[in-house]
Every structure is written in structure tokens, then in C-alpha cells.
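Feature request disguised as a bug: please show the residue count (263) next to Phosphate regulon sensor protein PhoR in the output. Example input:
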Amino acid sequence: RPDGHLNATLLAFGRGQRLLIARDISDLARLEQVRRDFVANVSHELRTPLTVIHGYLELLDPEDVPELAPVLGEMRTQSKRMGQIVEDLLTLSRLETQERITEERVPMAPLLATLRKEAEALSQGRHRISVESTAAADLLGSPKELHSALSNLVSNAVRYTPTGGEISIRWRREPGGAVYSVADTGYGIPAAHLARLTERFYRVSSSRSRESGGTGLGLSIVKHVLNLHQARLTIDSAPGRGSTFACHFGSERLLEPGNGEEI
Ligand code: ADP
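Example output, currently without the count:
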């Protein structure tokens, strides 16, 4: 078929024998496309009514009807949450259909400074936050998408670490490239959940996630952004001990800071 999709596996046996298994996955691919379009269209359609509702809720003054003040507060919180879910779904749809990213220098020193400020603003003095940068390298990729991915990991660390915990943001060299990591001393994640964390809306505890203001889409966004940069996400975590989320970038994604040279 002209627009068909094939999935092929080549098996090798002894004495030079080969077996090629080809499966026609055109219907699956089309179904996936329909799902993507549907999510993108619904999210897009929800955007305007939500903006209107949110706008009117902001206009209402709780002092006019004091007995409704708690209700109004909750409506504002929930409409903001819904707005964030819609924005995250739109971001995911955009990332899923994107095949290439802009290849720009992403200076790491200012980005790490911004990430520290974001962590401090979210934490409001409840955690000890440290930043260590020894990689002496900038990244090559999309500044906007990389900021969103790296900042998602920081926000998760703050949201899933109780008061008094520590959060360490690091940018270091490793064999074959460099690694950006965010370590926390928070709740941690049981091993059984680790493989599914980057699925849309997958949560270890929905009540904790909801309380902490999450949309359940953050790690899916991180994974998509990293894929577009040929980078890998690793998660090391244990309940009660904390978690380390690390993004591993290959050396082809690294630039000497200050000049255009590849490392
Ligand atoms: P959410 O918006 O729910 O935080 P994410 O996709 O960012 O969605 O994360 C998915 C789930 O992974 C979270 O609901 C939480 O259970 C778990 N998680 C993510 N980061 C951490 C962390 N640093 N510590 C403990 N659990 C985490």
C-alpha cells in the first residue's frame, strides 16, 4: 500500500540462514494517528471555553458574597488545573508530531540559574536546594523544549519531597557525553511503577499527585523532549530514600561554552 507501515524483524540462525518477518501495521498506525488527532482537537476546542470561565472567575470578587468565597477559591483552583492539563496535552501533541527540533545553542549556565530560581520559588524555603555544574558544556537543541523538560524534573522533586528534604541539581560529564540529574530525598517510587512512569496520566498515587498540583503528563513530556534530542532518561528511586532522575545526552549534543565548537 502506498501509505502502508511495515514492522520488520530479521532473525539470524547458524550457517548464514536468515528469516525476515514482516508485519503490516498500517491499521495500527492509522488508529494511532486518529487517537493523536482526537486528543489534539479536543484539547484545542477546550482551550477557549476554559479561558472564558477562568476569566470570569477571576472577575468575581469573593467579598461580594463572603459565604461563597471558599467555593469560588476551589473553582479557580480547578479551572487553573484544567487549563494546565489542556496546555500539557497540546504540548504533547505538538511533540508527538514533531520529527525535528531546532538546533540552537542552549547555554547551560543561565539555564541552571533559572532552574535554581524556579526550584526556590516552588519550594518557598521548605527544602535545601543545591546546584553543581562541572560539565563545562552547553547543549545543542531546542531551548524552549529543553527548559520545559529539565524544569519538569525540578518541579517534581520539589512536589514529591516533604519539608526539610534536599534537592540537588547536577550537570556533569560522563563517558560518551554529559548528564543532567535531579536528586531528591523525597517519598521515592516503588520499583514496580518505574517502567510506567513516563506514560500519560500514570501516577504512583493519584491523591498525592493531585494534591501536589500535577497533571500526570510531566514525565511524558520529558520523555518526548529527550527522544527528540536522542537523549535517555534513567530513574533511580526507592521508597523512603528518594529519587534521582537523570537525562543522558550524547557528546554530539554538547558544545564548548562560549564558542561554536563541538566537543
Ligand atoms: P504528575 O503531574 O502527577 O507529577 P508526572 O508525569 O510528572 O506527573 O509524574 C508521574 C508520577 O511519577 C507522579 O504522579 C509521581 O507519582 C511520580 N513521580 C515523579 N517524580 C517523582 C519524584 N521526584 N519523587 C517521587 N515520585 C515522583
